[in-house]
Specification:
Strand order of the largest sheet: 1-2
Structural class: alpha+beta
Helix content: 40-55%
Radius of gyration: 20 Å
Number of strands: 4
Number of helices: 2
Order of helices and strands: HEEEEH
Largest sheet: 2 strands, antiparallel
Length: about 120
Amino acid sequence: MDSFSLSEVGMSLQKQQLNLIAQNIAHANTVAKPGESYRALELVVSNPSQPLNIGPAQIKEIKAQPIRTFDPNHPLANRDGFIERPNINMADQMMKMMMATRAYEANLSVFNASKKMAQLVLER
């Protein structure tokens, strides 16, 4: 795999990761009936330690139980008066966002450096 392809795979994975993080943050304060609340998602890559042999990425739900709140006056409350909110750790999501942004930037730098080297070879 050449440096262009490797950088492209890295940028694509980080873009997917950033999109999932944005979706999680957007749903952090949504309210739903018990059993219907949003579950945070994450991107799981097989073989992350072998960048030349990265398998397909899968989107999986984070296994955090929703936060149940007693609010009998809420229109989405069940017959017992409970509603649910997603259990999304905002600090964790922000940390993942910063890591994905830095990884995307690193892959972009490698791509641009490879492009410059290729241009130099073609000019000679």
